[in-house]
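$ run holo --ligand "S-adenosylmethionine" --emit tokens
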Amino acid sequence: MPRSEPDAAAVTETTEAYYDSDEADSFYAEIWGGEDIHIGVYETKDDDVATASARTVVRVAAAVDFLAADDRVLDLGAGYGGAGRYLATRFGCEVDCLNLSDVQNERNRILTEKAGLADRVHVVHANFESIPGPDARYDVVWSQDAILHSGARERVLSEVARVLKPGGRFVFTDPMQTDDCPPDVLQPVLDRIHLDSLASPGFYRKNLGALGFEEVAFDEMTDQLRNHYARVRQVLEGRRDEMVERCGPDYVTRMLEGLGHWVNGADRGHLTWGIFHFRKAR
Ligand SMILES: C[S@@+](CC[C@H](N)C(=O)[O-])C[C@H]1O[C@@H](n2cnc3c(N)ncnc32)[C@H](O)[C@@H]1O
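-- output --
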């Protein structure tokens, strides 16, 4: 069931306040490395979180395969902009990093300026449920582990369809529940991210199909979701005292608990994750 407008707006407000908070900013900067804050692709269980997370960007870019220097990319929920800088450096394309959090956007601007990419990577403060700009502007819409935060995911997908050019590509990752996940079992996971549902592969297939998209591929890597949350939890445990200093004991305790719920959800077969690639009809 789509949420009512006020409910979706309340979710957005809570998410914005969370990502703008000092605690969250310190946590993501310190534990994740402050460039990429999504699920990593691990070659060994001891991989550094930042290295594994950077690897995911390379994997998602490989799914897109090729971008021309005059292609324009929109990154939805861009965090600190690591993917945008990678794409601009690798392909020379222009990337609009759309994100709700001013705190993250500021860090994105500083990192982008330092990398000498400010002419190609643009930071836009906005809600992806209402994307600013004209129709058919982008060749690629990209998103990593962000759409889960929406209380109006159908609207996000309609906006993606609106701003993509005919034949344009939508590549994204999103932690999802499995299509056959029983009701209520994910409540502990959902409570931590202030939502009442996760999307599922079936949700994306149905809604994007109805919007005229064709599925190109789904590279399913649920094991990496499990690896990632377990690894982040282990790193946070190892740096517990320092992170309690930075983020406070409540934040750290809740985060450790929350990460444990993600690991359990994956172990029980209720969660899934991977790289989706869709193409909009010509
Ligand atoms: C887990 S982080 C992922 C960040 C980035 N995609 C990455 O992979 O490094 C989720 C991101 O989604 C953004 N976000 C959540 N809800 C949003 C909304 N309604 N509109 C725009 N951005 C949103 C958050 O601010 C945050 O940057």
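-- notes --
The chain has a mean pLDDT of 95.
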